[in-house]
């Protein structure tokens, strides 16, 4: 969660940019709403944008403030690099590995339950308990040098949900293995976006680093139009979203190039412990952005039959972009261009 994303200047303080562009007059309604926008750089180490229709700037700012502050709470809970006074977060759980259970925020237990269920359903393709392996890749991206294969194998021995004890009644978390580490980077952005947007009025669209989540249509019922990135730059498709989420995992988001041009990106296949090579990008549509986020990572690792079966079980739709540029999609993944 502390990784600097290429090309983005990430500030510590929130930067709230409000654009008061008049955009829409609601059909038949006596009251005018305008479209506003806010951009934040202090959440989940990525750029977050919120667009929404409100009766005035004050109303939008109030809603934006609530959404920002709630996302910041989720960010802090999921942070594995920073301590916050009085807060038990995932860094606390990681630091306490091999020690006593820690009483944690029930929301963290909910997140980890979702992660466990996605781990089981994906046959281990999305595994937030392989934090020790992911930490080696994190350092590798910073140094632009691939990790030592023997170190990866050693780190992988400390992964697996068998090492995570969750007690829902006592609300405690404990990693039973001193070398075990959690990293929820594959699920947290979408999960937080979904939880926060559950309470938003209709007509808001949130993008947390490309994890896009809509609270409902624009005034008058029009859908939001969301663009999907082409892994080689530009846009691939646009799609209409009124409610729910679309999330993309791609090899172009965080990576470095080896001397021979090999792309060492950030989605790691738990079987090979190397960057997954089947796809360039996978986008998932799902009503719950947390599930969409976990699915996009899982599908990026899995082959197509396994991915299709998983997305069908979970009630979503998916679009795969193969290394040769071929695209595959499930029936429900409709694009407008
Ligand atoms: P996403 O962009 O949602 O696909 O998530 C990628 C992030 O999740 C990476 O930056 C890693 O922190 C983490 N990650 C990478 N591979 C996996 C995996 N197979 N299972 C769980 N987390 C992963
Ligand atoms: Mg994901």
Descriptors:
globular, eight-stranded antiparallel sheet, alpha+beta, T-fold, single chain, binds adenosine monophosphate, 8 helices, 337 residues, three-stranded antiparallel sheet, binds magnesium ion, disordered N terminus, 15 strands
Topology:
Blueprint: E1 34-43, E2 46-54, H1 57-78, H2 90-95, E3 102-103, H3 106-121, H4 131-143, H5 149-156, E4 164-167, E5 172-175, H6 188-197, E6 204-208, E7 211-214, E8 224-229, E9 235-241, E10 244-250, E11 255-257, E12 263-265, E13 281-286, H7 289-301, H8 304-314, E14 317-321, E15 327-329
Antiparallel strand pairs: 1-2, 2-6, 3-5, 4-5, 6-7, 7-10, 8-9, 10-13, 11-12, 13-14, 14-15
The protein binds adenosine monophosphate and magnesium ion.
* Computed CA radius of gyration, to the nearest angstrom: 20 Å
The stretches of 5 or more residues where confidence is low (pLDDT under 50) are 1-30
Shape: globular
- Chain-averaged pLDDT: 92
H/E series: EEHHEHHHEEHEEEEEEEEHHEE
Structural class: alpha+beta
Biggest β-sheet, characterized?
8 strands, antiparallel
Give the N-to-C terminal Cα separation. 33 Å
Order of strands, main sheet, comes to 1-2-6-7-10-13-14-15
Query: What would CATH call the class of the domain at 90-175?
Result: Mainly Alpha
CATH homologous superfamily designation of the domain at 90-175 = ApbE-like superfamily
Structure description:
This protein is an alpha+beta fold. It has a domain at 90-175: T-fold (Orthogonal Bundle). It contains eight helices and 15 strands. It has helices spanning 57-78, 90-95, 106-121, 131-143, 149-156, 188-197, 289-301, 304-314; strands spanning 34-43, 46-54, 102-103, 164-167, 172-175, 204-208, 211-214, 224-229, 235-241, 244-250, 255-257, 263-265, 281-286, 317-321, 327-329. The strands form four sheets. The protein has an eight-stranded antiparallel sheet with strand order 1-2-6-7-10-13-14-15, covered by helices on one side. A three-stranded antiparallel sheet has the order 3-5-4. The longest helix has 22 residues, at 57-78. The protein starts with 33 loop residues before the first strand and ends in an 8-residue tail after the last strand. The relative contact order is 0.12. The model is unreliable at 1-30 (pLDDT under 50). Bound molecules: adenosine monophosphate and magnesium ion. The site of magnesium ion has 7 residues, from helix 7.
